[in-house]
Amino acid sequence: MTFDIKKLIKEHAGENFSLYEAHVNPRFARALRIIGFDRCYETAKGAYLWDIEGRRYLDMLSGYGAFNIGRNHPVVRKALCDFMSMDGVSLVQMEAPLLCGLLAGELKNRIGYGLDNVYFCSTGAEGNEAAIKFARCATGKSRIIYASSGFHGLTTGALALNGSQVFKEKFGELLPADKVPFGDLNALEDEISSGDIAAFFVEPIQGKGVNIPPAGYMKAAGELCHKHGVLFVVDEVQTGIGRTGKFLALHHETGAEPDMVIVSKSLSGGYVPIAAVLMKKAIYDKVYSSLDRSVVHSSTFGKSNFAMTAGLATLSVLDDENLMDHATRMGNLLGERLQTLAERYEFIGQVRWRGLMLAIEFASPRSLKLKTAWTTVNKLNEDLFCQAVTIPLLEDHAVLTQVAGNQMTTIKLIPPLCITEDDVDWFITAFDKVMQDLHRFPGPAWESLMRIARNAMPGGRSKSRAAAE
């Protein structure tokens, strides 16, 4: 019997949630049903998704930022098919893969900072785990410092650097790590001057909340780290590969000097798990300090030529389609139009962005009637208000968005970098209508919100915040 993936998918079309509930994560499936996100997507291209009924959606989430060049990009697909057609070799392990060296060279040239060596692995979390180990080995110190609201993955080591206590609850003792307020240089120096800190891990723009630091913060943070013998580790898992209009978000700030940089997510165009940790030679020499330590840290799939092919093709697409400049133009267009809406709608507190990484932060309105509605909803659940935006965007306007993090009243937009002006129009028109409805209290939007709150209550605190990266 020949395996036929097309036949298998066709036979089980529409069974997504019943199978997921039965065999994977029934509570997450229930959360998606409560907020109306129980769609069965069938095909995807560029910035769009289609469900099994043929409805087209605008993807403003892009797989948590894994599809910077758009979904199912034909150039990357062709490269992968070509590699397979050659009966290409991969994962011999006792070898030095050609494509691994080529992709490492490309990354070094694009990232800069004198980062001499590249370690490949599969995910952003795994990249952060490696960086934690490398920092502790290179410095001989164990403590790590991270920024409040930071997110570096959910594996045990990376979890210690998570700014949200929700993710840490009930998982026991973690490695020694302490947080400092994001953007606060005085707090950072107070903490790292203790002399027992291995590294400071920080995102140049935080994925949780899309928090952008004050100008000059990253440069100054790096200088403080080096003054006190602390490694400066920059997590570009979500902000890298052109997301903010430059290859790294760190490239927006002149003079910053990281000791390690981590990239992942969209490096393969979303096709294959991949991550890379770039480091100074001094760190490499401490970790891989002798021939018998030459494989002291490794990852089975880290040097996969399949992943390397995807990575090289993705970088080519990023250049050929001028996607970084396009991200700047589309991000500015979207951000400026959202700012115009903020002048009309009381619930919009702030719009912030860099390239195509945007946040719409909601805040308590001025008028008494709307303030009462705001207070009531937030007393029920701190994560609930944003669902009054994301749910109708999906249900009524076919726009997929996400909450920016736990206990936040912020929506995050991280669409593929290939979105068009028509897509911006699509989103703005939809968001405008949702805001109109929310500014009518009482009204259908608020009735739906209360219904969601009631549905979620029996299971305890609403799960509708569903992990946002």
Structural features, described:
The chain has 469 residues and is an alpha/beta fold. The chain has 18 helices and 15 strands. It has two domains: 5-69 and 323-459, Aspartate Aminotransferase, domain 1; 75-320, Aspartate Aminotransferase, domain 2, CATH 3.40.640.10. Helices cover 42% and strands 14% of the residues. The strands form three sheets. A seven-stranded mixed β-sheet has the order 4-10-9-8-7-5-6, with helices on both faces. A four-stranded mixed β-sheet has the order 1-2-3-13. α16 (384-397) crosses α17 (421-438). Residues 459-468 have low confidence and may be disordered.
Note the main sheet: 7 strands, mixed
Overall CATH class of the largest domain: Alpha Beta
Radius of gyration: 23 Å
Number of helical segments? 18
Percent in helix:
40-55%
CATH architecture of the largest domain: 3-Layer(aba) Sandwich
The structural domain count equals 2
Q: What are the low-pLDDT stretches, counting only 5+ consecutive residues below 50? A: 459-468
Strand order of the largest sheet: 4-10-9-8-7-5-6
- How many β-strand stretches? 15
Shape by Cα distribution: globular
Give the termini distance in whole angstroms.
Answer: 41 Å
Q: For this structure, what is the CATH homologous superfamily of the largest domain?
A: Type I PLP-dependent aspartate aminotransferase-like (Major domain)
If you consult CATH, what is the topology of the largest domain? Aspartate Aminotransferase, domain 2
Q: Structural class per helix/strand content? A: alpha/beta
- Overall pLDDT metric: 94
